[in-house]
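Blinded run. Sample ID left blank on purpose so nobody reads anything into the name before looking at the predicted structure. Input follows.
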Amino acid sequence: MRVLVTGASGTFGRAVCARLTALGAQVVGLDLAPGPDDPVEVLACDLTDDAAVPVAVAAALDRLGGLDLLINNAGIGGPAPAELPPGDAVRRQLDLNLLGTWRTTAACADALVAARGRVVMVSSRMAVMQLPLAAAYGASKRALVAYADALRLELGTHVGVTCVYPSAVRSPIHDSTAAAGLSLEGMSSYEPLDGVVGTVLRAGLGRRVRRDLPTTRRGAVEFFLARHFPALTDRIVARTLAGRVRADAFEGAELAAGVVRRHRSAP
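Blinded prediction complete.
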């Protein structure tokens, strides 16, 4: 099994690479900043760079001798209220989470077709159930699923495509949101990293190619409700947000000032 993992030096990526290596797979990673103690060889690559991605992918495939599985794991989060105009941080989330995946997958497409391989997209629960004050991340992950759907239609005769939907896992991806006073604490229930890694491996290695895979039973329920009863999940999230405002969870958070003001002036 020849595997390429993006975001290989991050929390998810390192764990996925270590598990795959333990199973006997040949694994090469891509990451903007490879770590000195990464469990596999990780090539430095900025996935937002149109010219750099094909070069790095070609080098990875040369080391692997082909490609059976691509795991698109790289991604970043950050605060992004929908009511405010998009800035550089928003554009970077969209560029890395969506277009970085697109660039990498396009560079791998021929090798995956030749091997009758698979692609795993690490999406998010927020692809189907948006949380407030994080519009860029949710939009990028929902768009990622749309890209996966198109890829499945185009390559599905030869390549399996699966989207995995973690909820929230404690990792540095939440640091910038917490620093802005917009912590997910109280809005999401954290899940263990091992469950996410296990689901990613099931998506990539299981006998049956699955279209969508939530990572927990709770996540499966949320996924079902968000897909089939979106008005209900909107009400649940809105009620949770109102409770957070009443508890002064966003006190002093400039980016949440509009939300707080409107909730406090609502009848």
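Unblinding after everyone has recorded impressions. Strands lie at 2-6, 26-31, 41-44, 69-72, 118-122, 160-165, 212-214.
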